[in-house]
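Lab notebook, page 48
Experiment: co-folding of the full assembly
Goal: obtain a model of how the components sit together before planning crosslinking
Operator: M.T.
Materials (sequences as entered):
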Amino acid sequence: MNNIKISIRDLHVRYQDGKYPLRGINLDIIANMINVTFGPAGGGKSTLIRVLNRLIDLSDVDEIQGEVLLDGINILDPEIDVIELRRKVGVVFSQPIPLPLTISENISFGLEVAGEKDKKKIARRVEHALRQAVLWDEIYDRLDDPASSLSGGQQQRLCLARVLALEPDVILLDEPTSALDPVSTAKIEEFLEKAKDDYTFLLVPHNQQQAARTADFAAFFLQGKLVEYGIGEQLFFNPKKKETADYIQGRYG
Amino acid sequence: MNLLSYYKEPKNRIDRNLVQKIGFTGIRLITVITILPILGIVVFIAIKGMPALSWEFLSAMPRDGMRAGGILPAIVGTLYLMAGTALFSIPLGITAGIYLAEYASDNLWTRLIRIAIISLAGVPSVVYGLFGLGLFVIFFKLGISILSAALTLSIMTLPVIISTSEEALRSVPYKFRVVGISLGGTQWQTIWKVILPQALPGIVTGVILGLERAVGETAPILFTGATFYLPHLPSSPLDATMALPYHIYVISTQIPGMPITIQYGTVLVLLVLVLAMNIIASVIRSRARAKRQW
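Observation: model returned without errors.
Model output:
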């Protein structure tokens, strides 16, 4: 039996402008797996990611209903330590957004705001994170260059590295390769496959091929609802619902 | 029939280029015309004032009823006023800018603050002078002093510093704030480590421009801190002081038989001070723009 890392129960999200991106989601995110949520734009995938590390707090939310249990603790509880949650649940965005700092500062930022002062320890963590994200060999001799001097693919791996440096449990990836070339995309996918023993991934793929390549478990989202959920291969090659089959065969989306 | 056959070479191609050339020439000409008066003033004053400049002029006390000697007390007084104004207006102004850009939500209260700042920027400088006289000189009993004048100038400078700080912070893309928070930073940690350093050149530029205005003003210090003549340098913030703008007024209108070179020389010193600040501000701005990563 697989371990459930995050359990989402009847989750509704409604924005103040009337948008209603999530309408009663029930979904389990399995530990140490690549969990993929896919479907046409506007399905609520990105909103789900923003709920899971409470970045949604920055938006004008009208109402969030339901429960999201991370290791049994409801992260929607107003009493929880959101800062601690965000360290545990990292996110990589669809565009590489390096902070306007140096390469190493991009990674040490998260450690420093967490109160880490030991420079040697920070340097070790920076190196380790860069090695994990398969970036170290390319940039070890220019850690103090501005992060913007890196190529797009390198920048995205830097964004991954700065999440890894915080030693999170869960990593959310919102179309992380949509701005990248195929080689960089392959590097990120390789990383996911290799690292899943240590992390739980929730990936919004940027196309269906990526979804099919990477998914251990897949969930098909359509207009704020979870249509179908299951083991990746079964869902892609043998979908049970008509909407899923139609989407996978390219009839809409 | 292919697509290209629909494309016909325009007959009046040369004419359009000519029109564009004439247009651009006109725009250039108008730009030059706007620069001319400024250039004229600077050159004219530089030529007329240069003969007065000497080490003695910058470093000596006035003599013979200010008709000879130097203008040291006016220069020092202006620098004191600038320092005092910086002391009060920079921390207050930047803090208010951070509040407005990063924390204030869009509500009636914030709108009132904004209206107040805009109105403050539009108040004539002589009104600041009278306000300072009433509040600092008389009510707080600070007397005619550097302190009163610096406080008055600070109030006048604040709107400039607040709005440029706010603008500089707002121009830093929002996505950096989201990233900072997503990495477990608090809003303040993200502002302090990421947003503020990016906004700093813009803020510094605003500060310099604000102080520059304060340095050149006469009316606000007229009733609050400036004095006609001081035989010694001010020794405490509660002393009155001479200052360049007011000194220029004095030597131009109040002293019969004033040598004209001293008048031009004094104006030149003030002008150089203000222009130098302006140039520093532009250098900071263009350097920061070259280094900007977004």
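Interpretation: Chain A has a mean pLDDT of 93.
Next step: discuss with group before ordering constructs.
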